[in-house]
Amino acid sequence: MKIFLDTANIDEIKKGVDLGIIDGVTTNPTLVAKEKKDFKKLVKEICEIVKAPVSAEVISLDAEGMYREGLELSSISEHVVVKIPFTPEGLVATRKLTEKDVSINMTLIFSLNQALLACKAGARYISPFVGRLDDIGHNGFELAKNCQEMILSYGFDCEVIAASIRHPQHVIEAIKNNIDIATLPFSILIQMMKHPLTDIGIEKFLEDWKKANS
Ligand code: G3P
């Protein structure tokens, strides 16, 4: 499974990349707004650090505006994936940008029907928001799993990004359901690495080593 970081924070991205296990980055307008930096410069900097797919989202709501923004964003770096919200206008923009060889991550996917339409429009990635579905009493991973199965059975050239991941158990669900990619807040990556028995084990090994060598 690929691991993307869901952040626009340079320190977090550098730390993740240093770990050597990051396959890409996703951002969204909320994450970018937190950084209080020039959007395009920030995207360029992230791409230079990650050297792998970096999703940058359009703000326009009309197809023409999304298309224009998408072309601008994709000109920043070969690594940019243009993130487009799922709407009818978004489908039109996705098709047009795909025809220009721009990779699209269609975001805010909350149903299998939306996922099918995104794939048919040519999206390279689709992002079902598992956490936000769980928030309203639905099963987020049921959708992610169905998206994954649909892509396999019809042979779409598209990868599923499980987004809106809220805790390490969500990552385990992604693994168990063979989801292509999970995009994680940095805090969850940290949580994934921790286990009290690992810490206790290291402490005990060192203690025994010191006893034997004192
Ligand atoms: O990047 C999209 C997604 O991961 C947002 O997550 O926690 O705001 O629902 P959240």
Overview features:
214 residues, binds SN-glycerol-3-phosphate, TIM Barrel, alpha/beta, globular, 11 helices, transferase, pentose shunt, 8-stranded parallel beta barrel
Commentary on this structure:
With 214 residues, the chain is an alpha/beta fold. It has a single domain, classed as Aldolase class I (TIM Barrel, Alpha-Beta Barrel), CATH 3.20.20.70. It has eleven helices and eight strands. It has helices at 10-19, 29-35, 39-50, 63-74, 88-99, 112-121, 130-135, 140-154, 168-176, 186-193, 196-212, and strands at 2-6, 24-26, 54-57, 80-85, 104-109, 125-128, 159-162, 181-184. Strands 1-2-3-4-5-6-7-8 form an eight-stranded parallel barrel, surrounded by six helices. Helix 4 crosses helix 5 and helix 6 (112-121) packs parallel to helix 8. The N and C termini lie far apart (45 Å). The model has no long low-confidence stretch (mean pLDDT 98). The structure holds SN-glycerol-3-phosphate. SN-glycerol-3-phosphate is lined by residues 6, 26, 28, 129, 131-132, 163-164, 183. Its EC number is 2.2.1.2. Transaldolase is important for the balance of metabolites in the pentose-phosphate pathway. Pfam families: TAL_FSA. It comes from Calditerrivibrio nitroreducens (strain DSM 19672 / NBRC 101217 / Yu37-1). One of its GO terms (biological process) is pentose-phosphate shunt.
